[in-house]
Amino acid sequence: MKKSFIIIYLFVFALISCNKQREDSIELRINKLIKQMTLDEKVGQMNQLSGVGLSEDMIEMIKSGQVGTLLNEVDIETVNELQRIAVEESRLGIPLIIARDVIHGFKTIFPIPLGQASSWNPEIVKSAARVSAQEASSVGIRWTFAPMIDVTRDPRWGRIAESFGEDSHLTSVMGVAMIEGLQGDTLSHPSSVASCAKHFAAYGATESGKDYNTTWVPEIQLRELYLPPFKAAVDAKAATFMCSFNDINGVPSSGNTFLNRMILRNEWGYNGLVVSDWGSIEQMIPHGFCKDINDAAKKSIFAGIDIDMMSNAYSLNLSELVQSGAVSISMIDEAVANILRLKFKLGLFDNPYTPKPDNNPFYKPRSLELAKQTAIESTILLKNKNNLLPLSENIKKIAVIGSLADSKIDQLGTWCFDAEPENSITPLQALKEQYGSKIDIVYEPTLLYSRDKSDLNFKKAVKAAKESDAVILFVGEEAVLSGEARCRADINLPGAQSELVNEIKKSGKPFTMVVMTGRPLTLEKEVDMADAVLFQFHAGTMTGPAIVDLLFGKAIPSGKLPITLPRMVGQIPIYYSHKKTGRPASNITFIDEIEVGAPQTSLGFTSYFLDAGDTPLFPFGYGLSYTTFNYSIPQLSSTSINKTDTLTVFCRVRNIGEFDASEVVQLYVRDDVGSLVRPVKELKQFKKIFLKKGQTEIVDFQITAEDLSFWNSDMVKRAEPGSFTVWIASDSRSGSDVNFILE
Ligand code: BGC
């Protein structure tokens, strides 16, 4: 025992000193190189352009050291040739980095990030990111602009699709998982891809959910809600950061010294590189924050933005700004060092080229299996009246209604530029492949696409429903309706889909509604009408096989909402961890219950909407299973702790239903009285467990004072003594609570 301990100790010690030596030698090489570089070559490293293949202009720019990194080149031969020019024909032979947005897959497409968050399974998110990195790096991509860890509470915002939802803790866990998967064990491995924590910061707070809009975020909220995932990314050694398009309290992120220098570098000690967003330096002019491009370049370099993506602000102005003394050379050297450090860490100076793979690196059976499993785990069962699901395999005829049942492109979701829709397997296709020989499958697209407003084919759909033993109605959004700049003020089902749901309801047949969407939708009416609802955020290449397994019970739903589903758009922002008010909702009177001429005083005076009440359609953390889990009242290792103690909270979770299944067990805590008003509850930890039918598990969580701390008005993060309430529950609105005291 003692001997093995010594061996482990020596091994860890050797590993640490080896890493230290490697880092020291990288710093020496950086310093040496910087000394050899001209000012123009330095500025060249800070310039990022979008690839245009082997154009003469681009070749000339690379040869003369006017560009340091390129995005959007995905052809291995072009990548290698551009790299050869940089390494062999530029004066100092500094390699390029090739970057690309690989947001939820390169060729094998996984669920959109909001879907991945619905799995509440960081391991699967990490594995998916590993596959994405392997596929992307096989063509020479060594840097991607993911994960997007912007917390958001606004489903109108199209980029909610790329987010991990409304919660800071869940976003942090998922962001770290993605970073670890992309970057692998060491950045220098040829299959490792540098990650990019984006968009720094508060982009998800965009006013009214309209993209690029202003944000106004008090520092306490910034630190409590929007920054923690970024701090977690620094701790997880995210190689790069990207700033955001929005202004925060009046200062655009690309010129924001407070964020990019004071917090990121000084407070958190980050020494990776920061890239601007596409054209965001130049966009400080229309923002009205900079008078011209020269001013924009100056404000960005002062703010600590190392790379200018597609503004040409640095390439056109930085040299002159240095020569005039407006910008110091040490500022430039610092940025260049950050860029070169990444090039060294990626091993590009030693291995600049990408070998042609012997076998097809894309769509490997294991990758497709993982994509299917991720799609399964990200699907949420919202309703299952009379246990309509799972379907019996003995049914004779099934009606499949709705064009999303067979839309190869739409199931992929937003922002997957390298996806090949022809390789998607749709639900209809999977159903035919697996059950076509024994079940009569009648397909009625009815509407040609999600926005189609025509009711011409409704009769055929109703007829198919009436004549079938099972009815599956697919509704949702086309992929193009979510993502960057794809915001919606109305988040009902587009087109005539709602009317279609109504028609199918009138057929009298029990039906399952499968929702495929890029954002939360307001679905109150439709959920009421449907007997069962499977809800998924666009789930990628393997959507079809995943849905079919879920429909027939070969897989059991285990997804949970990473975001609240509102009843009506007017409830937005609606999120589970809202602050307590002085008049919490009680005695809710709905608008239709108010008597005509009722006096103002007859309704009471508490915090709710006359038309939407006080509850969401479905709360954060919600998701059913085909089985039932029973939670005991949580128990505590002690009813009071001090600031150095660890409290154990545990409860018994029992699978009392008919299926073996997974469950996400969630720990929520409330600070009952604070020097600032605290949220009604906050997610602190969670565990996804698997229980066989009849099996019981004691699930425990450890809580320390750090978990109870919050940013106070002195801008210090501290736990305050007093009473706390804790829940172990299957979603953010259920479960029994217990109390303890922090002394
Ligand atoms: C997006 C970024 C993205 C960049 C490069 C911008 O429009 O905001 O998230 O990484 O483009 O494609």
Commentary on this structure:
- With 743 residues, the protein is of the alpha/beta class.
- Among the domains are: 99-345, TIM Barrel (Alpha-Beta Barrel); 629-742, Immunoglobulin-like.
- The protein is 31% helix and 17% strand.
- The protein contains 20 helices and 27 strands.
- The strands form seven sheets. Strands 11-16-15-14-12-13 form a six-stranded mixed beta sheet, sandwiched between helices.
- Strand 15 (512-517), helix 18 and strand 16 form a beta-alpha-beta unit.
- Helix 2 (39-45) runs antiparallel to helix 12 (313-323) and helix 6 (122-137) runs parallel beside helix 7.
- The longest helix has 35 residues, at 2-36.
- The radius of gyration is 27 Å and the shape is globular.
- The mean pLDDT is 97.
What is the first-to-last residue Cα distance?
A: 39 Å
CATH topology (level 3) name of one domain: TIM Barrel
Principal-axes shape call: globular
Number of helices: 20
Q: What's the CATH H-level superfamily name of one domain?
A: Glycoside hydrolase, family 3, N-terminal domain
